[in-house]
Design a protein that fits this description.
Order of helices and strands: HEHEEHEHEHEEEEHE
Number of helices: 6
CATH superfamily of the largest domain: NAD(P)-binding Rossmann-like Domain
Shape: globular
Number of domains: 2
Strand order of the largest sheet: 3-2-1-4-5-6-10-8
Strand content: 15-25%
Largest sheet: 8 strands, mixed
CATH class of the largest domain: Alpha Beta
Distance between the termini: 102 Å
Radius of gyration: 26 Å
């Protein structure tokens, strides 16, 4: 009887430890599943031209969104060292080099281009090619107002005299994006300013503008909305401006 009693105690102890180990494994699996779900909910956003004044408005607004991680693409990463964190990664590269863009786009969900310059169309073409290479679909590109002669007169004629050469490059940039198979949004601000204004009016391709200037803050506001809901303004070319009070 004593022997059977000991065997019984041994079996009960064994079963208890086996049950505890099984519970621990289940808990571990649940934790891993929750962690994977959390990682799957993260939106990785690549900002190209991250050292510009418009990006300076975009970055803090995107970081206010839950589960958004940023990769900031610029030529000299030391310029933004102070922004490095567990949610912000710096990537040093040149948008003229498609190999840099290919590497920068690994693991990204959304690409935002805030670049300018006389070679913007060529760099934007590199972006669309790299996105296709990496199977990334969502692109937000900043072009400029006036490229479709959509500004009201006499403002349109004045703008053409002032920045007519830039219109050519910005129009080619929009055409490159719109001819792609990407899920794009082209934003066309006009005469950027640094006012702390986030109210704006949107116009669509073929419509006349309502305003004559655009705050960088308002661009950042709109881009943040698109990142929050990437279905917004899919494959649309949008003018954005502030309506001046009479």
């Amino acid at each position: 009887m004593i022997i059977f009693g000991k065997i019984r105690i041994f079996l009960l102890t064994f079963l208890m430890f086996a049950s505890l180990n099984s519970m621990a494994e289940v808990n571990h699996q649940v934790l891993n599943e929750n962690k994977n779900k959390e990682n799957n909910n993260i939106t990785n956003v690549l900002i190209i031209g991250a050292n510009g004044r418009t990006s300076a408005q975009i970055i803090p607004r995107l970081l206010n969104l839950k589960n958004v991680h940023l990769r900031l693409f610029l030529r000299d990463s030391e310029r933004l060292n102070k922004l490095k964190s567990n949610r912000v990664e710096l990537f040093e590269g040149d948008a003229s080099n498609i190999n840099d863009l290919n590497r920068a786009m690994d693991g990204q969900n959304i690409v935002i281009s805030t670049m300018g310059g006389r070679d913007l169309d060529k760099k934007t073409e590199n972006i669309t090619k790299a996105m296709t290479n990496r199977k990334i679909d969502r692109l937000i590109v900043i072009s400029a107002g006036g490229i479709w002669d959509e500004l009201p007169e006499p403002f349109n004629t004045w703008d053409k005299v002032m920045v007519g050469a830039d219109r050519i490059v910005n129009r080619k940039t929009a055409e490159v994006v719109e001819s792609s198979n990407l899920n794009y949004t082209v934003l066309r601000p006009v005469w950027l300013n640094d006012k702390d204004i986030e109210n704006y009016t949107l116009t669509y391709k073929g419509e006349k503008y309502k305003g004559k200037s655009t705050s960088r803050a308002s661009i950042a506001n709109l881009i943040t909305k698109i990142v929050s809901d990437p279905t917004l303004f899919s494959r649309r070319d949008i003018g954005i401006s502030q309506v001046e009070k009479e």
